[in-house]
Amino acid sequence: MTAQPPVRRALPVDAELRRRAAAVVPGGLWGHMDVSRMPAGYPQFFEHAEGCRLRDADGNEYVDFMCAYGPMVLGYRDPQVEAAAAAQAAKGDVFDGPAPVLVDLAERFVETVAHADWAMFQKNGADATTTCVTLARAGTGRRKILVAKGAYHGAVPWCSPSVAGVTAEDRAHLLEYEYNDADSLRAAAAAAGGDLAGVVATAFRHDVRRDQELADPAFARAAREVCDAADAALILDDVRAGFRLHPAGSWEPLGVRPDLSAFSKAIANGHALAAVAGTDRWREAATQVFVTGSFWCSAVAMAASLATLERLAAPEASQHMAAMGVRLRDGIDAQAAAHGVSLRQSGPPQMPLILFDDDPDLAKGSLFCLEALRRGVYLHPWHNMFLSTAHRPEDVDRALEATDAALAAVARGFPAAA
Ligand code: PMP
Q1: pLDDT confidence tier of residue 416, bands split at 50, 70 and 90
Q2: Which of 81, 293, 371, 395 has its CA 20 to 30 A from that of 97?
């Protein structure tokens, strides 16, 4: 056993907030941001952020590589995005119907996303993925949906990773396939028989706690063929990757266009918004279904999205994130080699994941991340991380100073077996 390092500074404010939360919030917090899932030493509460710098409730500052789990794609409190949001807020946010910006934004999606003939807006990623599934069923009159084993599409009963509170009926018409395995996809489609409504695939394989896998173009083409043969919907869940990899859609470089795609996270740089984009084949179904929410038409997030997408449409945005991701990856690879630590970095450079060899309980990954944390760098031991356009070379270099010391600590804490 290695002793866990202390955090960079004590977290008394955080500890007090967590103590109070424990009494009035079930478990202290729900979901993916519940810090009790992380190695002990991570802060739960944050009070400020700007660019790629994040400050916790105790005033400790971090170079952040989580970007709020994806939404921050231009950096926290981007001045242009916040100005657009403030200008809309001055006029109002929710009305008896949408603001004109809804039409501007739908036009922007149709211009930018290659397969899109129309767009609809929601709040969270799960709203968008669930709407896609509903549209696939409405547009085909069929029930079966193929999903990749282990993929995350949201925390609602049809796709939640937890079975608590979920009935077998909620998932009665899901069939699983193995991501990047065209044969298993075809077998699942055969099992669906004449009842296939749609195939859901994420942009690449980004399941937690395992190496990420880029989408194999042959697999993407097979998914397209399976859907074409059955006149079923190919649904790209681009919630996590959308606009970080390619503004026209994450499968555009593969030459495969989905029928429906779900976006959220990055599309409004931190304002709550999701989108479904679709082709004309699914327009009638999208007209027929009843999907809505009290805040789905709120205008401030749409104004923020318009300002965000304008910037992300330029190829330089994803190229910059990729370049910063490569700088981080190359630096860590060189440091790991120098310290004799074997690790694996996977996924696109804009969304890196670092896992250590021989680390079944993630003890090495946890030590690495805690050592980086106490040196002012916020990494994640088992979920993919995110670069933003606000990460500058000097931020990455600052992070690399911390990772060098963190890898030295891993080498000390886990001396290679003689
Ligand atoms: N799909 C994917 C691929 C996701 O990564 C997420 C969120 N992590 C979702 C759907 C659900 O999005 P949300 O949490 O906004 O509902």
Answers
A1: confident
A2: 81
Mutate-to-test residue for ligand 1 from 121, 152, 207, 385, highest number of ligand atoms within 8 A of CB: 152
* 73-94: average pLDDT: 98
Hey, what are 326's tokens?
């490569």
Residues of the chain above pLDDT 90, percent: 97
- Does residue 279 belong to any structural domain of this protein? yes
Residues 215, 203: contact at Cβ < 8 Å? yes
For residue 151, give the ligand 1 atom closest to its CA: 3
pLDDT digits (tens, 9 = 90+) for 305-323: 999 999 999 999 999 999 9
Are 41 and 7 contacting, i.e. CB atoms less than 8 angstroms apart?
A: yes
Q: Tell which atom from ligand 1 comes closest to the C-alpha of 265.
A: 15
For 141-156, what is the mean pLDDT? 98
Predicted local confidence at residue 9, as pLDDT: 65
Q: How many other C-beta atoms are found inside a 10 Å radius of the C-beta of residue 299?
A: 21
Atom of ligand 1 nearest to the CA of 126: 16
Q: How many CB atoms lie within 10 A of CB 315?
A: 11
Cα(126) to ligand 1 centroid in Å equals 6
Nearest to 262 by CA among 124, 159, 147: 124
* Pair 196, 203: CB distance under 8 Å: no
Q: Taking residues 243-261, what's their average pLDDT?
A: 98
What is the DSSP secondary structure assignment for residue 161, as one 8-state letter? Answer: S
Same domain, 293 and 357: no
Contact by Cβ (8 Å): 210, 234: no
Q: Please give the residue range of the domain that contains residue 47.
A: 12-67+316-413
Q: Which of 268, 297, 313 is the last residue in one of the domains?
A: 313
Q: Is the pLDDT confidence value at 6 over 90?
A: no
Structural domain includes residue 48: yes
- Tell me the one-letter amino acid at 99: A
- Residue 294 sits in the same domain as residue 352: no
Question: What is the DSSP code string of 28-47?
Answer: SS-GGG-GGGSPTT--S-EE
Whole-angstrom distance, CA of residue 120 vs CA of residue 291: 10
Protein residues whose CB sits closer than 6 Å to any atom of ligand 1:
124-126, 129, 152-154, 202, 237, 239-240, 264
pTM of the model: 0.97
Q: At what angle do helices 182-192 and 217-230 cross, to 10 degrees?
A: 20
